[in-house]
Amino acid sequence: MKILKWLSVADRFYKIYLDKQLAPFGINSSQHMFLLKVCDSPGILQDALMDIFYVHPSNIVRTILALEKQGMIVRTPNNQDKRTWKLYPTARALAAYREVKAICDRTEAVLLKGMGEGDEALFADLLMRAGKNIAAELHVERKEEEFDGGESSGI
């Protein structure tokens, strides 16, 4: 139970911390990873986000609509399949991108405080493995993403 307790504590408090940092941009800890991904991949299909993030499709729709309402992204119909949407960052999103990414990097630094470089890499690897283990137990599979390899993109 010790691992579950501390996963819960870390999850709860990093989200509170991140929410406070992201508030000036009108986004929260549930939305930042989508915003960063759309900025990194303009024109990405909304459906592709289901393969990237371990989030239920209804949550993706809700988050994208909230970001659109905040003026952070624009949805346009996909010419190849009118049932799907292409997502593009707005000028507002692009202006906020660097600072949002920096906030994510600082939040990770807080989480990793006191760990050596080797410990940080080990922690990231073990946490990713634990997440994939529980996802596999629930028969949830997603594509590998560039940030899974250790690159810190805040996502």
Short description:
Helix content is 59%, strand content 11%.
**Could you tell me the number of beta strands?**
3
pLDDT < 50 runs, ≥5 residues: 149-155
Radius of gyration: 16 Å
Structural class: mainly alpha
How would a textbook summarize the main sheet? 3 strands, antiparallel
Q: What name does the CATH topology carry?
A: Arc Repressor Mutant, subunit A
Number of helices: 6
Q: What's the CATH class, please?
A: Mainly Alpha
Mean pLDDT: 90
- Strand ordering within the main sheet: 1-3-2
CATH homologous superfamily label: Winged helix-like DNA-binding domain superfamily/Winged helix DNA-binding domain
Q: Helix-strand pattern, N to C? A: HHEHHEEHH
Number of discrete domains: 1
CATH architecture: Orthogonal Bundle
Head-to-tail CA distance between termini? 27 Å
Task: Give the overall shape, derived from the CA principal axes.
Answer: globular
What fraction of the residues are assigned to beta strands by DSSP?
A: 5-15%
- Helical amount: 55-70%
